[in-house]
Design a protein that fits this description.
By secondary structure, the chain is an all-alpha fold. The two termini are 20 Å apart. It has one domain (18-232). It has helices at residues 16-49, 53-80, 89-115, 117-144, 149-160, 162-173, 182-202, 208-232.
Length: 233
C-alpha cells in the first residue's frame, strides 16, 4: 500500500508545459477524492463506531480546527522566513493529512487482518482503489506548492510509509487500545483541506474552459469515492 504513493511518479515523464496544464485539474480531482473519502467512507464508518454522536462530531470538528490552526502557524512561520524558497502551507497540510490518513488506514486494515484475513483483504482492495487517484492528486498539489517533482515524489512516499507503521502498531496493540477517535478526526482534516485550500486553488484560473474542466473533475472525484463505497461495501 505504501508504494502506491509512487504512482505520482507517472508525471515525472511529462515536460514542464504539460505538467502545468494538468496540475490544477489533478488538484481539483484531489479535492473531490478528499471530500468524497471523508463523506462517503470515514464519516459513515465513524458513525457506526460512535453510538454517542456528540462525541463523534466533537472529534470531527477538532480535526477541522486543528488543521486550521496548523495552517495559521505555517503561514506565520513562512511570513517570518520570506527569504526562503516558497513552500505553500497547503503542501505541508497535504503531507500531514495524507500521513494521518495512511496511519489510520494501516491501523484499521491491520486490525481487520488480525481478526479476519478475508475481511482484511477486501478492505485493502477498497483502500488501494481509492488511493491511486488520491495520490496522483496529492502529488500535483505538492508540485503546485513549490517542490520539484522528485522531492514531491519522495515526500509523498514518506507520507505513504505511515500505512506500514499503522499496520505494525495494530499488530503490537491489537485489542488493547481504542483508536476509533482518529477516524472522525482525520475526516475533519480532509474536509478542511479540500474545502478551504484545494477548491479556492482551482477556481483561480483565468481560462473559463479550464475552470469548467476543474469543476467537472471535482464531482468526478467525489463520484469515484462513492462508486468505490458502493462496489466494496
Amino acid at each position: 500500500m505504501s508504494t502506491i504513493a509512487l504512482t505520482g511518479g507517472l508525471v515525472l515523464t511529462l515536460d514542464e508545459d504539460t505538467l502545468r496544464k494538468i496540475i490544477l485539474p489533478l488538484v481539483s480531482l484531489a479535492a473531490g477524492t478528499l471530500l468524497g473519502g471523508a463523506f462517503f467512507h470515514m464519516i459513515p464508518e465513524g458513525l457506526v463506531l460512535y453510538p454517542n454522536r456528540n462525541e463523534f462530531f466533537i472529534w470531527l470538528a477538532a480535526g477541522f480546527v486543528v488543521f486550521f490552526s496548523l495552517e495559521e502557524l505555517l503561514h506565520s512561520h513562512h511570513s517570518r522566513r520570506a527569504d526562503l524558497p516558497c513552500r505553500k502551507p497547503l503542501g505541508y497540510l497535504i503531507l500531514l493529512g495524507d500521513g494521518l490518513h495512511n496511519l489510520i488506514g494501516g491501523l484499521s486494515i491491520g486490525a481487520l487482518f488480525i481478526s479476519d484475513i478475508q475481511l482484511g483483504i477486501m478492505a485493502w482492495i477498497a483502500a488501494a482503489a481509492h488511493e491511486v487517484p488520491q495520490e496522483l492528486g496529492d502529488f500535483a498539489v505538492l508540485v503546485h506548492s513549490g517542490w520539484n517533482k522528485r522531492k514531491a515524489l519522495l515526500l509523498n512516499l514518506a507520507s505513504g510509509l505511515t500505512f506500514l507503521l499503522g499496520g505494525l502498531l495494530a499488530l503490537s496493540v491489537s485489542g488493547s487500545m481504542d483508536i476509533s477517535f482518529l477516524i472522525p478526526f482525520a475526516a475533519g482534516n480532509f474536509i478542511y483541506i479540500g474545502a478551504s485550500d484545494l477548491i479556492p486553488e482551482v477556481r483561480q484560473h483565468e481560462n473559463p474552459g479550464i475552470n469548467r474542466l476543474n469543476f467537472f473533475l471535482f464531482p468526478a472525484g467525489m463520484g469515484l469515492m462513492l462508486l468505490i463505497r458502493i462496489l466494496f461495501t
